[in-house]
Amino acid sequence: MGLDIGQALVVAVKLFAIMDPFSVIPYILGIYTTYQESSQEKVSWNYLVNKISIVIIVILLIFSILGRAILDFLGLSPAALEIGGGIILVYLGIDTMGGFGQLRFLSRNIEEAIVTPIATPLIVGPGTLTALVTLSVGHSILLLIVGSMVAALLTYLTLLSAPLLVKVLGKTGTIAAGRFTAIIIAAFGVQLILGGLTLLGLIS
To answer: Which parts pass through the membrane (predicted)?
Structure first.
């Protein structure tokens, strides 16, 4: 079976929107600036982004490969997963609009912050993992891997250019970009819920 590049790009865009790196840029820059000012051991922005990206890639690969196996192991129907996953994504979209109000965290150790909370759950959170498992119902592992890696690349480039984006767009503009992607997340969640209800025959 050949790889459908178009579908892979659709998956990539959905995952990128859910990871929504724009919304966490001010947060990450805040952690980075505080660490640079309070620590004698300096860390470059490129180093930080590279480490974050490695963690993101590993998590995405694991769930791209094992997503369908997890679904089968738990004995969940595609309809149940789509409805449950959709509800989570709608909630995540609303939470993102509020600026991650539930995730106020600041680590003095930048190495610890790279994994938690930056890489997960701020970027690759429950919404991303749920989306990967849900997408595994109708897509091949290869397509999910390609889509995930494209999404990871887009996230990497976004984070790498974060200082420039903040300078060009300003903090308000960067936050606004994150809010816009939150709408996409919520819309994807509603789409999943409708798809699940369709599978159950409740709507046509």
So the answer is: 12-35, 47-67, 73-94, 114-135, 141-166, 178-203
